[in-house]
Amino acid sequence: MAVYTDVQDDALRAFLLDYDVGGLLAFRGIAEGVENSNYALRTEAGDFILTLYERRVDPGELPWFLGLMEHLAARGLPCPLPVKARDGQALRELAGRPAAVCTFLSGVWPRRVRPEHCAPLGEALARLHLAGEGFAATRPNALGPAGWPPLLDRCRAEGDAVQPGLVAELDGALAAILRDWPAPGALPEGHIHADLFPDNVFFLPGPDGKPRVSGLIDFYFACTDLLAYDLAVCLNAWCFEPDGRTFNVTRAHALLSAYGALRPLSGTERAALPVLCRGAALRFLLTRLHDWTETPAGALVTRKDPLEYLRKLRFFARAEGGADIGL
Ligand SMILES: Nc1ncnc2c1ncn2[C@@H]1O[C@H](COP(=O)(O)OP(=O)(O)O)[C@@H](O)[C@H]1O
Ligand SMILES: N[C@@H](CCOP(=O)(O)O)C(=O)O
Question: What's the ipTM?
Answer without folding.
Answer: 0.95
